[in-house]
């Protein structure tokens, strides 16, 4: 489009210059010819005639220039419209690119934040057949069959979970028993009882209990389960102890 406008401008300028030069040359030739003509009246008339011809030629050149200017203005207007459209699209593309860059930066920040967070989760079962308890005193249960122990915060030798970081944790446990006695397991936090799972005898001669709790722990605080009645298990692993870190503080 720009090349077309430039070509049109050059064509108009060339045409205008050609017409102007042709008009000037014709006037000079005619005046020279009339100078040799005898008779002042005839010469004056000839000069007036040539002036009118020169004026007509000049008018034609002026009209041609006006037409060229009109075409140039029209082409330039069209180019301006297209340039404005291109600028608008470019501005929209830059805005989208800025938004995508901001989104990418936020995702990278979140990934780095999550990558730096501690990961803590465990799940274990008693891992033995037959009954456990009752005992004369509450006894810490040791869940030796470990399914998951991410972060190694649970100790399968003692049955105790020790918080590796300050944060909020979720714990759950199940208890199952059979026979004539009831089942009872209690969750402790640093020696303080928190929640209990209790079950009485059922017609099927089996009883179960379960509970769950969310606790805020400081680094080094301990959570464990104590038996105050009895539990019974088999290969189905009914008695479990699980927990994980919800978020650190």
Defining key terms:
rod-shaped, single chain, 13 strands, 2 helices, alpha+beta, five-stranded antiparallel beta sheet, six-stranded antiparallel beta sheet, Jelly Rolls, 45% helix, 249 residues
Assess the beta-strand content as a share of residues.
Answer: 25-35%
The main sheet comes to: 6 strands, antiparallel
The DSSP helix count reads 2
CATH architecture of the largest domain: Sandwich
The residue ranges in which pLDDT falls below 50 over 5 or more consecutive positions are: 19-24, 37-44
Q: Compute the gyration radius: what is it?
A: 51 Å
Looking at CATH, which topology of the largest domain would you report? Answer: Jelly Rolls
Shape: rod-shaped
CATH class of the largest domain: Mainly Beta
Helix content: 40-55%
Distance between the termini: 64 Å
* Count of structural domains: 2
N-to-C SSE string, H for helix and E for strand? HHEEEEEEEEEEEEE
The number of strands is: 13
Structural class: alpha+beta
If you average the pLDDT, what whole number results?
Answer: 78
How would you concisely characterize the structure shown here?
With 249 residues, the protein is of the alpha+beta class. The chain is built from 2 helices and 13 strands.
SSE map:
Layout: H1 2-35, H2 40-116, E1 121-125, E2 130-132, E3 139-140, E4 145-150, E5 154-155, E6 160-162, E7 167-178, E8 183-189, E9 192-199, E10 206-217, E11 222-227, E12 231-233, E13 240-248
Helix pairs in contact: 1-2
Characterize the structure shown.
This protein has 249 residues and is α+β, with helices and mostly antiparallel strands. The chain folds into 2 domains: 2-115; 121-248, Jelly Rolls (Sandwich). 45% of the residues lie in helices and 31% in strands. Strands 3, 5, 6, 8, 9 and 11 form a 6-stranded antiparallel β-sheet that branches. Strands 4-1-13-7-10 form a 5-stranded antiparallel β-sheet, with no helix packed on it. Strands 2-12 form a two-stranded antiparallel ribbon. Helix 1 packs antiparallel against helix 2 (40-116).
């Amino acid at each position: 489009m720009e090349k077309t406008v430039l070509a049109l401008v050059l064509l108009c300028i060339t045409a205008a210059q050609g017409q102007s030069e042709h008009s000037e040359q014709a006037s000079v030739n005619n005046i020279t010819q009339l100078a040799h003509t005898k008779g002042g009246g005839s010469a004056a008339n000839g000069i007036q005639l040539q002036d009118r011809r020169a004026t007509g030629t000049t008018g034609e050149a002026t009209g041609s220039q006006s037409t060229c200017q009109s075409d140039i203005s029209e082409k330039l207007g069209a180019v301006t419209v297209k340039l404005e459209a291109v600028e608008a699209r470019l501005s929209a593309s830059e805005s989208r690119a800025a938004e995508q860059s901001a989104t990418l930066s936020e995702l990278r920040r979140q990934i780095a934040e999550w990558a730096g967070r501690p990961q803590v989760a465990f799940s274990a079962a008693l891992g033995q057949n037959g009954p456990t308890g009752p005992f004369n005193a509450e006894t810490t249960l040791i869940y030796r069959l470990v399914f998951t122990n991410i972060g190694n915060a649970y100790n399968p030798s003692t049955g105790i979970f020790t918080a590796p970081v300050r944060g909020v944790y979720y714990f759950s446990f199940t208890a199952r028993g059979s026979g004539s006695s009831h089942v009872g397991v209690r969750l402790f936090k640093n020696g303080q009882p928190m929640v209990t799972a209790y079950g009485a005898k059922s017609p099927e001669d089996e009883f179960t209990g379960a509970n769950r709790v969310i606790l805020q722990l400081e680094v080094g605080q301990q959570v464990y389960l104590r038996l105050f009645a009895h539990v019974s298990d088999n290969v189905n692993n009914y008695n479990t102890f699980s927990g994980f870190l919800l978020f650190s503080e």
